[in-house]
Design goal:
The structure holds 2 protein chains of 2 kinds. Helix content of chain A is 39%, strand content 2%. Chain A contains 5 helices and 2 strands. Chain A has a two-stranded antiparallel sheet. Chain A is globular, with a radius of gyration of 21 Å. In chain A, 41% of the residues are buried. Chain B is mostly helical. Chain B is 74% helix and 0% strand. Chain B has 16 helices and no strands. The chains are: A mainly alpha, B mainly alpha. Chains A and B meet through α1 and α2 of A and α2, α5, α6, α7 and α8 of B.
Chain lengths: 194, 475
C-alpha cells in the first residue's frame, strides 16, 4: 500500500485480468465465427445484406433508434421474447458476424427488431417486389411511432421539406435495412422451433 | 471544527484572521475553478436536455431533437461534462491536501481542461448532427476519443505523480482510490475505443468490450473517485476516525478486483457465451464484499456519537452521507438484480436506468455537491451567498433523485412483470408505463431547479471572491 509501484501494479492487474479473461478469450472463442449453411451445401446465413440496407443501417444509427429498440432475442427461459413473437429462436453470436458495429441495444421502449424483416413481411415471395415492400414499410413506420404515443412521427423522413424537395431516400434505405433484419434461419447453435 | 455549524451554513471556511490560502491551494485554485465552472455549466446543459427528453415522450418532434439524440447527448454531457470535470477538480484538491503536492505545472492542467471541454462540445454537437454510434457513453464520433484520452492524462494524471512523490511514507485510503481511478480510466477508455470503434472486434465481442468499459467508467472512475471523497470528508468534518479503518485496504482491493468483472451481468440473455454472462453474475456478487466493507466504514463512522445528526446539520456531510447510503443500496441492488431470475424480469426496462442513476446521481453527484460545499469556500475565501439556495438545492435534488430513481425502478419492475406474461399485449405495457413519462417531467423540473440554485450560489461566490493571494500561508 505504501509502495506506489506495488499499488499501480496491483491496479493494473485488476484491469488486465478481466480484459484478458473476458475480452481476449471471447475474441478467441468467437472471432472465427462465419456465416454457416442451414444444411449441407445450402446457402450461407446470416446472408449478406443489399447495399441499400447498409445505407439504412447508417440512418438507423444516426437517428438514435437504438435508444428505444433492441436487436436481440433472449432464450425462452430468459424473458418472454420468443413467446411474444420477437423471434422463432434465440439470437446467437453467429447472427452478428457480418455487422461492422453490432446494435444490440439495452432498452426496449419500442419492440425488438432482431427479426423484424421476417416478422413484418409474411407475404409470399413474388407478390411484392423488394422496393415496393420497402416503400410500404416506410409509410407504415410513421403510423407505428404515432400509435405508441412516442410523439415523434419521424415525418421528416417522408415529407417534403420547406423548399419542396422530396427526399425519401433515407426512408427507403431505413425500410430496406429493417426488412434485412432476419433471424429466421437455422444456425448451428440455434435451431428454429418446429 | 464543525460541531457548531447549523444546517445550511457553509463548511470548511477558514477562521477569520487566518491567512486564506495555503501555497498548495493557491496553485491549484485556477485549474480547480476552471474544471468546476465547466462542470456546473455542463450540469445545467444536461438538466435542460433532461427536461427536453422528458417532454419528448409527450409529443415534440424534429430531426435534431429525436429522443435518441437528446438522451444520448444528455447522458454523455452528464457523465463526461459534469461528473468528469467535477472529479478532475476534487481529485486534484484531495491529492494536494493529502500529499502536500505542489502543482507547479498548473498550465498543463488548464490546457487539459480546455481540450477536454472543447472536444466534448464538438462531440455533443456531433450527436445532434446525427454523427453518433450505438454504444452508450461511446456515442461521440470516434475521433473525439483519443483527444479526450490526452486531455484526461493532462487533467487527471497528477494524483499518480503526487502519490509517487509524496514526502511521507504514510498514505490514506482516499489517495489509493484516486490513484486507482485515475490510472484505470484512460486504459479502459483507449482499449474500449480500439475494440469497439477503431478496430471493431468480431460481432458481439464489441458488446462484451462495451459492457466492460461501462463498469470501468461508472464503478472504477466515478465510483472510485467518489469513494475517495467520502473517505476524506467523513472523518475530516466529523473530526473522528473512520470506524474499522483497518478494513479500508481490503475495501480498496476488493473494489478494484471485482468491479471489472461485473460488466457482463448487464448482458444476461444476450447472444454472448453463457460463461461470460455467469462471470458477470459472480463478479457482481463478489463486488458486495467491497460494498459491505465501505458500509461498515461509512455507516459505522456515522452511527457512533450521534454522527447522523451531526452529518445532517453539516451541508457537506448531508450530501455526502446521502451518497454513502446510495452506494450501499446500489451495491445490493446490483448484486440482487444480476441473478438470472430477477434480471430476466427487468432487462430492457427503465430499471437499469434507475440503477445507473442511483450510482451516478444519488452517489457520485451528491458526493460532488457535498465536496463543493466544503472546498469552494476555502478556495474562493468567501461564503456561500444564500442559505436559502443551499436548502433549495438540497431538497430539490434529494427529492428529485429519490423520486426519479424509485419511479424508474418501480415502473421497470412493473412493466417487466407484465412483459414476462406474453398474454399482456405490448400496447398495454406501454400505457401502464406512461405514468413514468409524467413523473419524469416533474423530476426533470426538480433537478433543473436544484441545479440552477446550486449554480447561482456557486457562481455568485466565485465572482464575489477577490483575487487569490499568490504567496499564501506556508504549511
Amino acid at each position: 500500500m505504501q509502495n506506489p509501484k506495488l499499488l499501480i501494479a496491483g491496479v493494473f492487474l485488476t484491469v488486465a485480468l478481466p480484459f484478458g479473461a473476458l475480452l481476449l478469450s471471447s475474441q478467441v472463442q468467437l472471432g472465427d465465427l462465419a456465416p454457416a449453411p442451414e444444411e449441407e451445401g445450402g446457402a450461407l446465413y446470416p446472408a449478406t445484406v443489399p447495399g441499400l440496407a447498409v445505407q439504412g443501417r447508417d440512418v438507423y444509427t444516426s437517428l438514435g433508434c437504438i435508444a428505444c429498440h433492441t436487436q436481440q432475442v433472449r432464450p425462452s427461459g430468459q424473458g418472454s421474447d420468443i413467446a411474444r413473437g420477437y423471434g422463432d429462436r434465440p439470437s446467437v453470436a453467429r447472427d452478428y458476424v457480418l455487422q461492422s458495429h453490432v446494435l444490440l441495444g439495452d432498452r426496449r421502449i419500442g419492440p425488438d427488431l432482431a427479426n423484424y424483416g421476417a416478422r413484418v413481411a409474411p407475404t409470399p415471395k413474388g407478390t411484392q417486389t423488394e422496393p415496393e415492400k420497402a416503400a410500404a414499410l416506410a409509410k407504415s413506420l410513421a403510423a407505428v411511432h404515432v400509435a405508441i404515443h412516442h410523439g415523434n412521427t419521424f415525418a421528416f423522413l417522408y415529407e417534403a421539406d420547406a423548399k419542396g424537395d422530396f427526399a425519401p431516400e433515407r426512408a427507403d434505405a431505413l425500410a430496406a435495412y429493417l426488412l434485412s433484419l432476419r433471424q429466421d434461419y437455422n444456425s448451428p447453435e440455434a435451431k428454429l422451433k418446429k | 471544527m464543525t460541531q457548531d455549524n447549523r444546517s445550511g451554513r457553509p463548511q470548511g471556511r477558514p477562521s477569520p484572521g487566518e491567512s486564506r490560502l495555503s501555497r498548495v491551494e493557491a496553485q491549484l485554485r485556477g485549474p480547480f475553478l476552471l474544471f468546476f465552472v465547466s462542470a456546473v455549466i455542463w450540469l445545467l446543459v444536461a438538466s435542460v436536455l433532461g427536461l427536453i427528453s422528458a417532454l419528448q415522450l409527450r409529443g415534440v418532434s424534429g430531426e435534431v431533437f429525436t429522443f435518441g439524440h437528446v438522451s444520448a447527448a444528455q447522458h454523455n454531457l452528464f457523465i463526461y461534462g459534469w461528473a468528469f470535470n467535477a472529479f478532475f477538480a476534487i481529485n486534484l484538491w484531495l491529492t494536494s491536501q493529502l500529499g502536500r503536492f505542489e502543482l507547479r505545472n498548473a498550465w498543463l492542467v488548464s490546457l487539459g481542461a480546455i481540450i477536454w471541454n472543447v472536444a466534448l462540445t464538438y462531440g455533443a454537437l456531433s450527436i445532434f448532427a446525427g454523427d453518433l454510434n450505438g454504444f452508450s457513453l461511446l456515442e461521440m464520433p470516434r475521433t473525439v476519443g483519443p483527444v479526450l484520452a490526452v486531455a484526461f492524462l493532462l487533467s487527471a494524471f497528477w494524483p499518480i505523480v503526487a502519490y509517487a512523490q509524496r514526502p511521507t511514507g504514510h498514505s490514506f485510503a482516499s489517495q489509493w482510490f484516486v490513484v486507482g481511478a485515475s490510472f484505470v480510466f484512460p486504459l479502459a477508455y483507449l482499449l474500449a475505443q480500439l475494440l469497439v470503434l477503431w478496430n471493431p472486434a468480431s460481432g458481439v465481442v464489441q458488446a462484451i468490450a462495451h459492457s466492460w468499459f461501462i463498469q470501468n467508467l461508472l464503478l472504477l472512475w466515478l465510483g472510485g473517485s467518489a469513494l475517495a471523497a467520502v473517505y476524506y470528508f467523513l472523518p475530516k468534518v466529523l473530526g473522528r476516525n473512520i470506524t474499522g479503518y483497518y478494513l479500508a485496504s481490503v475495501a480498496f482491493w476488493t473494489f478494484f478486483l471485482f468491479a471489472g468483472w461485473t460488466g457482463t451481468a448487464s448482458l444476461l440473455g444476450s447472444p454472448i457465451p453463457v460463461w461470460v454472462q455467469s462471470v458477470g453474475v459472480v463478479g457482481s456478487a463478489m463486488f458486495l464484499v467491497s460494498v459491505i466493507i465501505t458500509a461498515i466504514n461509512f455507516h459505522g463512522t456515522l452511527s457512533t456519537q450521534s454522527g447522523w445528526s451531526l452529518a445532517w446539520n453539516s451541508t457537506t456531510l448531508r450530501f455526502i452521507s446521502l451518497g454513502a447510503v446510495a452506494f450501499t443500496l446500489y451495491g445490493v441492488l446490483n448484486a440482487l438484480f444480476s441473478f438470472r431470475g430477477f434480471n430476466a424480469v427487468v432487462r430492457f426496462t427503465s430499471f437499469s436506468a434507475g440503477q445507473e442513476q442511483l450510482l451516478t446521481y444519488a452517489f457520485a453527484s451528491m458526493v460532488i455537491f457535498g465536496s463543493a460545499y466544503f472546498i469552494l469556500p476555502r478556495l474562493t475565501g468567501s461564503l456561500w451567498p444564500s442559505t436559502k439556495l443551499v436548502h433549495l438545492h438540497f431538497w430539490a435534488t434529494a427529492i428529485g433523485a429519490l423520486g426519479s430513481i424509485s419511479a424508474s425502478l418501480a415502473v421497470g419492475w412493473q412493466s417487466g412483470k407484465q412483459l414476462a406474461d406474453p398474454a399482456v399485449p405490448y400496447a398495454q405495457v406501454l400505457t401502464a408505463s406512461a405514468g413514468l413519462a409524467s413523473a419524469s417531467l416533474i423530476f426533470a423540473i426538480l433537478f433543473l431547479v436544484g441545479h440552477v440554485a446550486f449554480a447561482l450560489n456557486a457562481f455568485g461566490m466565485i465572482l464575489k471572491s477577490s483575487a487569490p493571494a499568490v504567496e499564501g500561508r506556508h504549511d
